[in-house]
Amino acid sequence: MNKILYKYYWLNFLVVAIPSFFNPLIYIFLLKNNSMSQIGVYLSLFWFISFLTEIPCGAITDLIGEKKSIILSGIFKIVGLLLLISYDFKLLIISAFFSAISESFQSGTLSSWMINSINHYKSNSVNLEKVFSIASIIGLTTSLIVGFISVNYLYVYKPILPFIFSMILCVILIFSAINMGTIKTLKNETIIKVLINSVIEIKTVFKRIFNLKTGLVLMLLILLPKLLDVGPSNQWQAVFHRENDEKIISIVWIVIAISGILGSFISDKILKNTDYFKSFSLLLFTDVLILMGIFLSSNIWLNIILFSLHIVFFTIASIKGNVLLHSEIVESDKLRNTTVSIFYSLESVCISIFLSLNGIFSDKIGILNTWRLTNIFILLVLVFLLFYIKKKRRFLNGLKKK
């Protein structure tokens, strides 16, 4: 059983390390030959294709097994990176397609393989919570160290090097996956049948989204932190970047990693005696004010501190939002996976739209002004949704009393 876990940790390390080489600096790299609108289109397309391919790729994985899916993910990632560094916008768009499919094949596949393998060997001695905790620590540490090395040394020496190192790790991932073994969860199913069922499932997801009504409003509320962070999470490199001083980017990268870890660690200690609905709203409102304050001062270190506070509050709000999703929206264990998949489908579509708009407005009025405009919009939506939900709850409580 330890052999399976060691393979899982190793593969998890590779999956995290591959994007960590280029994530801290991809926006700066793309800005060399593309406008912010074009980058917004690229990121938006990536999210939208991820949404379209998530369910079909999951179904195909059940058919062909996790090993082949990881291999396909590695191959698609290499093709996507090769197209990304081509300095051609048309090829960049095609890159979004290959990169999105790569993510869809890889998303959740390793965890499924590990759990399926443990269940196959009927082992009850494995503490999954501990396994995921170790994997999370490996991921965060890997992301921090690899990103730091990439920004400070590889990118400084030659901007294309981080992408080359990512492709090398993709090759290592492919060869590592060959020896991972696989447990198929579907038998005697044809690829055509799986794809047809996937299309039907996607249609069902859309129907459920628009039939949820009150649930949809709560989903939109939980989505707000992610939409608020669309600009900061993708454009921080361009905002903090100083010509001939890549150390600032590496410092901010470390700050982001540590702030995320801190937010995760204290999330259950912040407003613990407050209703999740109220605490989530308060955290989101505070995060909006923090982002509004960034760059009102010309002191870059003060702005980095404010940005780190944003990461902390964003992380805590996201965790409490996840609790809200499972406690307020999910109606039964039987429908839990379906409801959660609806939420993530809605999230992908909304982020895709926001990324595109963010790129357009960043070109027109500047990055920071776009952030502030987004803050005002999110604040107005937050107030409206809170008012609507509060009114709806009063109405439902009145019906219960009658």
From TrEMBL:
<keyword id="KW-1133">Transmembrane helix</keyword>
<feature type="transmembrane region" description="Helical">
    <location>
        <begin position="91"/>
        <end position="110"/>
    </location>
</feature>
<dbReference type="Pfam" id="PF07690">
    <property type="entry name" value="MFS_1"/>
</dbReference>
<dbReference type="InterPro" id="IPR036259">
    <property type="entry name" value="MFS_trans_sf"/>
</dbReference>
<feature type="transmembrane region" description="Helical">
    <location>
        <begin position="131"/>
        <end position="154"/>
    </location>
</feature>
<dbReference type="InterPro" id="IPR011701">
    <property type="entry name" value="MFS"/>
</dbReference>
<feature type="transmembrane region" description="Helical">
    <location>
        <begin position="69"/>
        <end position="85"/>
    </location>
</feature>
<feature type="transmembrane region" description="Helical">
    <location>
        <begin position="373"/>
        <end position="389"/>
    </location>
</feature>
<feature type="transmembrane region" description="Helical">
    <location>
        <begin position="9"/>
        <end position="30"/>
    </location>
</feature>
<feature type="transmembrane region" description="Helical">
    <location>
        <begin position="276"/>
        <end position="294"/>
    </location>
</feature>
<feature type="transmembrane region" description="Helical">
    <location>
        <begin position="160"/>
        <end position="178"/>
    </location>
</feature>
<feature type="transmembrane region" description="Helical">
    <location>
        <begin position="300"/>
        <end position="319"/>
    </location>
</feature>
<keyword id="KW-0812">Transmembrane</keyword>
<feature type="transmembrane region" description="Helical">
    <location>
        <begin position="248"/>
        <end position="267"/>
    </location>
</feature>
<feature type="transmembrane region" description="Helical">
    <location>
        <begin position="210"/>
        <end position="228"/>
    </location>
</feature>
<keyword id="KW-0472">Membrane</keyword>
<feature type="transmembrane region" description="Helical">
    <location>
        <begin position="340"/>
        <end position="361"/>
    </location>
</feature>
<protein>
    <submittedName>
        <fullName>MFS transporter</fullName>
    </submittedName>
</protein>
<feature type="transmembrane region" description="Helical">
    <location>
        <begin position="36"/>
        <end position="57"/>
    </location>
</feature>
<dbReference type="InterPro" id="IPR053160">
    <property type="entry name" value="MFS_DHA3_Transporter"/>
</dbReference>
